Amino acid sequence: MLPLASEIIPQPILRTYISYAREYVKPKLSVEAATVLQNYYLKLRAKKEQFSSIPIFNRQLEAMIRLTEV
Question: Which of 10, 13, 16, 33 is the most buried (most CB within 10 A)?
Answer without folding.
Answer: 33
